Amino acid sequence: MDDDDLDLGEAAAFILGARPALYEDDVWTVLKEIGDPPVKNADGMAVDLITRLHPDIRAKDVKAILSEWREYARLATESDWE
Fold first, then answer.
1. pTM summary value
2. 39 domain-assigned
3. Among residues 4, 12, 35, 39, which is most buried (max CB within 10 A)?
4. Spatial CB neighbours of 6, under 8 Å, sequence gap ≥ 6
5. Which domain holds residue 50?
């Protein structure tokens, strides 16, 4: 599986399972606005974009969502992970 095959629904479920204190609407907003998990050094731009477009979402939460999203993407590309 490559990044093009990543399922946003599965990603959201993974993120919310790992970080239950996050708001589901915030997770979905980040996933839909960004589209694909950014590389780690692009977090600043992603956080800036999300917090400018959605000032009600905290930068700390955006960073947590991005971190868990990358972890989901890493695991999803492993051949033995389901």
1. 0.89
2. yes
3. 12
4. 36, 37, 72, 73, 76
5. 3-76
